Fold this sequence. Notes:
The protein has one helix at residues 8-11; strands at 15-17, 23-32, 40-46, 51-55, 59-62, 66-68, 100-102, 107-110, 115-116.
Amino acid sequence: MGKKVIPRSKLIGMQVYNPDATLVGTVKDIGLVPGETGNIVLIVTTRYQQEIEIEWPKVAEVGDIILLAEKVEVTPPATMAEVTPAAETKICPTCGQPATWIEQYKRWYCYTCKKYL
């Protein structure tokens, strides 16, 4: 049986976690390094709204989430103590549409799918 191909559209919007189950962020896009064959990176928006690049070999598993093989340190910027989830943009993994932060329930809701993420 051949290797399983994961489409780009499935990866975008997926949450990325460290091996210790701490949230790193959400996949914003996939990138290629010019001049290097097969060097793929995940462009991830962290929970502090920073963009980081994670090389594909550091990915351990892809399922409902992306689990990394090695821990990636994510630290808040010096000028920002905390970012509220409402300042983030979350994409529904089912339909790919933007979700809305519902402060009352402290959860993301997709109005297209009519369900919480």
